[in-house]
Every structure is written in structure tokens, then in C-alpha cells.
Amino acid sequence: MTTDAAADLVPFMMRRPGAPFPPPEYQEFRNRPGLVKAALPSGETVWLVTRHEEVRAVLTDPRISSNPTHEGFPRPSRTVGAPSADEVPGWFVSLDPPDHNRFRKALIPEFTVRRIRSLRPAVEEIVDRAIDGMLAKGNTAELVEDFSLTVPSLVISSLLGVPKVDRDFFEEKTKVLVTLTSTDEERDKASEHLLRYINRLITIKSKRPGDDLISRLLQGGLLTPQELSGVSMLLLIAGHETTANNISLGVVTLLQQKQWIDDDRAIEELLRYHSVADLVALRVAIEDVEIGGQLVRAGEGIVPLVAGANHDPEMFERPHEFDPSRSATGHVAFGYGVHQCLGQNLVRLEMDVAYRGLFGRIPALEVAVPLEELQFKYDGVLFGLHALPVRW
Amino acid sequence: MARISVDTGRCIGSAQCVLAAPDVFDQDDDGFVTVLDDNPTGEAETTARTARGICPAQAITVHD
């Protein structure tokens, strides 16, 4: 029996509908034996992983690498696919253990449960100010720009130790990086400005340390100033649009099902349900490895899809329903394995404070357009909303 | 009754165990896991098993 290999290839990436959030093709892929071979726009082929068990297996297997310098590492497009740690020192998401360990060890004291809890008053102040700004302008707002992008940008700048006088600059530049209407040239320029700013901040903090992440990491001595610059840019990029998308999508979902607004379980289910960072965890096999009965050869790219895993009915019954009464524990919205999101507990805090602030202070908050008119990031790397008009 | 042990060499400080089972696990100042109760019973045992299941670094063992 012969098969036409090219005919079996599915094109990738898929367009995501508004809700349910994962592309409907994932359900069909989960039902196939083994993994699914897909063709990227570049013509290279990758293995797609859509079942929960196998996504976790891929993300914990030491024979599977996060390092983009390995032959066969997936490069879906210009904007997807990380730089290597050779290109940007400190870009530790692109390193495997043991090289990765030093970075994680240096950073985890900054993200302990205690430390994150201690940030609550600072996050509350940031959220309150953003809401003050919205209320001062009238009874409508564009929530993505006026709130969802602002809050994480200010939280990260506070974490890094950006002085208050520079926060408007920092926020303006970070927004350019993720706004739909920015041109590539504007994005490159904003990124350059931010990098230059962070390098200057590192120089200042090395002379006059403060109570902030950059100062403590400089004093800890585990990372070089150059690596710290890459780490700071990475924290900014990893923590900004992802958090903003989670906040915005959560507002829409909670406004549709208001009974969950004050329920502590809502956040975990929102993270699972929206799975904004569906295709961030790109990998390549560095040895032959069997995943879900599929032989993956050394040098073949692997794309574990976290929205696929989080909507796997074997793991979560009625996965396309938003139901905080289920236990969403075990979702992989933040990935799994040694690269699981370092800032996940900060994201949870930001979402909690954001919703308490918005729904507490603006009880009449509603989406100002019919849901079908919302501009979802249908083709984005991260799932989210380009804009969210609201009124009260 | 179950005995809990952790492999701090594997721990990546994600703190999922601290959130899932705060009576059983904590973090030291460096962010690594510490065990508060290595013989949890009842509800604490259930939460410890949940923590084992979600630990991204698979650093928790429950000995039955």
C-alpha cells in the first residue's frame, strides 16, 4: 500500500473562531491515531500535538528541545519563533537544562507565592488609576488600550524598578509593540528604544540599587548585566500581551455569564477556556522519540498546542463550556515542564485585581457592540481581542 | 496515609503545589519547595495528590 504523504499534510496555522476558542480542526486531530503532520507556510513540516496527555509528555521529555539553534526547530512565521540565547543573551526560554537552570534559579525568588502576594497593593493602585482614567473620560472606553494593555505594562515596569517618571514612556513603547496598527518599522524602533532604556536602567541600578528585580538580580551575581538585559526584555514581552489578552477575553466571558464574577474559581477556568498562548511552546526532537504511538525523528519540529490540550474532552468534560464549577486544575495554559510560565502567579493576581476593580467600581460595565462584531485576533500567535469597546 | 517526598533538584519553583496544597507544601526564600507535612491525611492528603499531578517538574512523590 502506498500513501501520498503530501496529501496527508494539513496546512498550519489554523484560523481560530471567536468561541469556542481553539480551531475546530483540533477536535478532529485529537481523534486521529498518533500525531498530525502539518505544513507551515514556509513549506517545512511539523508534528502537531493536540491531546492533553501528549502535550504534557512533549513538554517534559529531555529528548525534546526548546533551543531554536537545533536543526528542524519550527519557524511558523516572522513573528512566531523565538530568538536563540546566542542571538539575545538571557533569552532563557530558548535554553534547555542544564543551561536553563541558572536563569530559573536566579528568577524564581522574584516570583514566589509570598512575593507575588506582597505585590497586591501595588497592582491594586495601578488598576485603580487605570479605572480612574477611564471614568474621567466619560461613560465609554476601549478596554484593550485603556486598561488591559496598560495594567500589565505598569506592573512589569514596577517589578523591574522603572522609576515612576519614566512609566508613561515605558507604557507607550510597550503598546507600540503589540498594537495592530503599528508598522514593522514602528515596532522595531519601539523595541530598540526599550532595549536602550533597559540597558541604561541596569547601569543606573548597578550604581544605585533599589528594591526591585533588576537590582536584586545584579546583586545576586548569577547573571551578567548583558544577560539581565535579555531577561528584562523577555519578562516584558512574555508578560504584556498575554496578560492583556487574558484580561480582555475574561471581561467578555464574565459579562456573558455574570453569575461567576465574584467566584474564586473563575480565573483558573478562564485561563483554561481561552488558552491564549496556544502555539507558543515550539519544540524540536533531538533524538528519535515516540509520542502517543508516533515515531518522531531527531530533527523534526513539534508544536504542542495548549488550547488543544485544554479542550481535550478526555481531560475536561464539555471542554467548550465555560464552567468554573469544574476543576480546571491540570490545565496547561501556562505550559508544562521546566519552561512553565514563570509569571503565572502574577497573571492570576493581575486578573483577580482587574476584575475586582472593573466589576466592583463599574457595576454597569457592558460590551458596547454586539459580540459578533468584536475583533478577535483570529490569526495571531496569541489569541485575544484587538479592541473591546465598553460602556457603563 | 501517604508519605510525601520532594526532589528539590527537579523543582522549578512554579509554586503550583503551594497553591494546591498549602498545608503540605511551602517555598523557601530561594523559591524551592519545602514540605510542611510529610504525612498528610484526609483533605490534606487529597490536595497533596493533586499537587503531585500538576507539578510541572514532576518533583513530588507520594509513597503509598
Write the layout of secondary structure elements.
The complex is a heterodimer of chains A (about 400) and B (about 60).
Chain A: H1 5-8, E1 10-11, H2 25-31, E2 36-39, E3 45-49, H3 52-60, E4 64-65, H4 99-107, H5 113-118, H6 120-137, E5 140-142, H7 143-148, H8 150-160, H9 167-178, H10 184-207, H11 213-220, H12 225-256, H13 266-274, E6 283-285, E7 289-291, E8 294-296, E9 301-304, H14 306-310, H15 344-361, E10 366-367, E11 375-376, E12 385-387, E13 389-391
Chain B: E1 3-6, H1 16-20, E2 25-27, E3 33-35, H2 42-54, E4 60-63
Antiparallel strand pairs in B: 1-4, 2-3
What keywords describe this structure?
heterodimer; A: 392 residues; alpha+beta; 6-stranded mixed β-sheet; 3-stranded antiparallel β-sheet; 13 strands; 10% strand; globular; B: 64 residues; two-stranded antiparallel ribbon; two-stranded antiparallel sheet; 22% strand
Structure description:
The complex is a heterodimer of chains A (392) and B (64). Helices cover 45% and strands 10% of the residues of chain A. In chain A, the strands form four sheets. Chain A has a six-stranded mixed sheet with strand order 1-2-3-9-6-4. Chain A contains 15 helices and 13 strands. Chain A has helices at residues 5-8, 25-31, 52-60, 99-107, 113-118, 120-137, 143-148, 150-160, 167-178, 184-207, 213-220, 225-256, 266-274, 306-310, 344-361; strands at 10-11, 36-39, 45-49, 64-65, 140-142, 283-285, 289-291, 294-296, 301-304, 366-367, 375-376, 385-387, 389-391. Chain A is α+β, with helices and mostly antiparallel strands and 392 residues long. With 64 residues, chain B is an alpha+beta fold. Chain B is built from two helices and four strands, in the order βαββαβ. Chain B has helices at residues 16-20, 42-54, and strands at 3-6, 25-27, 33-35, 60-63. In chain B, the strands form two sheets. Chain B has a two-stranded antiparallel ribbon. In chain B, strands 2-3 form a two-stranded antiparallel ribbon. Chain B is globular. The model of chain B has no long low-confidence stretch (mean pLDDT 95). At the A-B interface, loops of A face α1 and α2 of B.
